[in-house]
Amino acid sequence: MFVPVVDRNNKPLMPTRIGRAKRWVISGKGTFFWKSYTLCVRLNVDPSDEQKQDIAVGIDPGSKREAYTVKSKGHTYLNLLTETIDWIKDSLEVRRNMRKSRRSRNCRRRECRFLNRHKSKLPPSTKSRWQLKINIVKNLFKALPITDIVVEDICAKTKFRKRKWNVSFSPLEVGKKWFYDQMSKCGPLTIIQGHETKRLRDSLNLKKDKNKLSDSFDSHNVDSWVLANFIVGGHTEPDNINLLKFVPLRFHRRQLHVLLLKHGKRKNYGGTMSLGFKRGSLVKHKKYNVVYVGGTMNDNISVHEISTGKRISQKVKVSDCKFLTFCSIRIGLVPLSVIT
Known about the structure:
Layout: E1 2-6, E2 12-17, H1 18-27, E3 30-35, E4 38-43, E5 56-60, E6 65-71, E7 76-83, H2 88-103, H3 124-143, E8 148-152, H4 171-186, E9 189-192, H5 194-203, H6 217-232, E10 243-248, E11 273-274, E12 277-278, E13 282-285, E14 289-297, E15 300-304, E16 311-316, E17 321-325, E18 329-334, H7 336-339
Parallel strand pairs: 1-4, 5-8, 7-10, 8-9
Antiparallel strand pairs: 1-2, 3-4, 5-6, 6-7, 10-18, 11-12, 13-14, 13-17, 14-15, 15-16
Helix pairs in contact: 3-4, 5-6
């Protein structure tokens, strides 16, 4: 397992193995710290060598699962599997119904304002999906000296039934153009078509799992690995199939009240702060070690496991928690028994 390394000025260097990083920290040559949701090591001395290899990040987009691979010619540093955000459309529908119900009541309210509606070029559900990809890649650039980006292109089907859809009207097509524009600002961007990815995969005698919802290397990460290996080379078969899984956390924003009535009254609901902690933040507890923050109840906070999201306790005092870093995702290491 590799750990990102930065110098005194937070400039990314070549990553190192976790054992070597621990020896640096014990001897005082390095210090562990959190950069976004990534544990890194900062050198307290001048690095012995600042030479860097070419590192490519391969991206395989998908509707339910997405894969990222960070690889150089010598090593595969990271295989990342993420779940996509699929609740935006339903949330907007609930918000719309709540607003309609409030306006139909016989109570004091302001009139509807239509001049403050700013129509976006991207639908909110589409933008949230591509925004997650952008955030992940930008955080990788902060921790690793990435030199190239390679993405498998998405080709949306056009419709010619009741409505004629051009590629410029497809949300996927519009979203990917915005994504490519943002990625080109980070570094050199290479776009590979799906049939070219299959040809590269077949040339290495690699097979892809047909189960798209499987947490295995062969489901999506085999394509992201092939894309990264196409840029930097160095291997004829995957040298690292360990998977790190990201699950975006769903935050319920502040609402005036919940939809359901209880004893004829509606209670307040939502919010992203829990007694001073931002929900989703990683904290270190005296008893439960590293967990993430959930909701609040009776001046206590709830904490959850990072890997599974299971709630551990609802009666945790704020004074017993040490803040580590802000986080909006749930991180889990997929065991090898699942991968193989």
